[in-house]
User: What shape does this take?
Amino acid sequence: ISALPTDTNLASLFSTLSLPPPFSPHLPPPPVWQRPPHSDSGVTAVVEQEGYVSLRLRHAVVLDISANLAIRLTNNLKNSSMSLSACTTQMALVHPKGRILQYGPRVEVQTEDEVSVKNAKIYPRGISFTANNMALVYLLDEAGARSTSDMFHDLYATQISDTLFMESCQREGQSVTTSIRQLDRARYWRTEAGVECWIIGHVFIQQTEDGLVIVENELQHGDMFVLKTSPSNGKVRFDSRFMQMTASLGDESHVFLRSRDRRLHYSGHTKVFTVRNAGHSAGFDEEGELRIF
Assistant: This one.
């Protein structure tokens, strides 16, 4: 596997901003604005000092929305986090079964288990993939599978979801003011089925009685981005016009990604890692060996 130059990092993909040191997780800064919960369920909403609304939902799910409407959805019970940039061209997932990073037309996936560390990249040319027990990088395109050269980010080197969200937050002083205004104008209602609903900006949030959270971000030109997380089974889902992604724990432990006619599937049980493109399939079997189907 080819490594990136040492002066290249994930943050450089998002912006050239120089971030201050993060606050200690043991001593979080107090919110600058807190609005009483709309319901009796214990849900609260605050504006954090960095300039974003933090909606603290039931079952330890937290939804953060920046002043420019970047989104971070965190499932603390199942150790997963998913972020969508304000421009909606970048997405990051941190999940116990794998990590995903989208930047423009490229999507990288990384999984780690006792067999190997597996990397794949979906991009206009096809799908390139490799593992740390392999000497070569492989390309799967319309002609089939063959060796190639490529570079992959180490998606486990940093908390990519947090990096993407914080880089997407506005850094100007008015971001706190904007977030306070957004929170003050937020709408809340509860359906007869017990679903709690909020609207913040053009972001629509729902939480069902069992804790499932659905976040919909519909843009002016009609594109819809949907993020889902379940505190019961650890399943997450992301849907957009460009790609669809799911990851889960338990009996259906997996990572799945689809972008047009390109697919990737990783089984958390068998450790089989498969990519598909243009009618061809390849990947790594249970023992970590290359297989071309």
Summary: The chain has a mean pLDDT of 88. Residues 174-184 form the longest helix (11 residues).
